[in-house]
Amino acid sequence: IAEASICGLPCMLSSFLPGQEEGNVPYVEDSGFGTYSGDPKVIADKVSTWLASPDLMQEMKANALKAARPSATLDIAKDLAEMVFEHKKKQVSSA
Questions:
Q1: What's the rounded Cα separation, in Å, for the pair 3 and 23?
Q2: Mean of all residue pLDDT scores within the chain
Q3: What band does 72 get if pLDDT is binned at 50, 70 and 90?
Q4: What Cα–Cα distance (Å) separates residue 84 from each residue in 16, 71, 74, 91, 95?
Q5: Residue 7, beta-bridge partner list
Q6: C-alpha–C-alpha distance, residues 35 and 29, integer Å
Q7: 72, CA 20 to 30 Å: which among 15, 41, 83, 95?
Q8: Alpha carbon distance 21, 23 (integer Å)
């Protein structure tokens, strides 16, 4: 999902892990750049509809780019590093 949105691509979700990925479905659908179905016929029909409509593809591309967070990995790494440094600082000050 992250990679597709950064590239401005629609997402056709066909499965998700309960709990961990469950929020992906409403995120993609509510953001307007994809949908979910576990039914191969529905998937084929939906993707065919998207590909047949340049206007819809352009709208979904814009929605995907709007939802994209290209710096998310760097932001997470930065937050984790700050947590480690803060923990180390507390260890040093309590020693």
A1: 17
A2: 90
A3: low
A4: 31, 20, 15, 11, 17
A5: none
A6: 5
A7: 15
A8: 6
The answer on pLDDT for 39 being more than 80 is yes
Element (H or E) spanning 29, and its range? helix 24-31
CB half-sphere exposure, 85, CA atoms < 13 A: 6
Q: Which long-range contacts (CB under 8 A, 24 or more apart) does 44-48 make?
A: 46/12, 47/12
| Global pTM value | 0.69
Q: Phi-psi region for residue 16, left (φ > 0), alpha (ψ -120 to 50) or beta? A: beta
> What integer is the mean pLDDT of 72-95?
82
Please answer whether residues 27 and 1 qualify as being in contact, where contact means their C-beta atoms are separated by less than 8 angstroms.
yes
Task: Tell me how far apart the alpha carbons of residues 50 and 34 are, in angstroms, rounded to a whole number.
Answer: 10
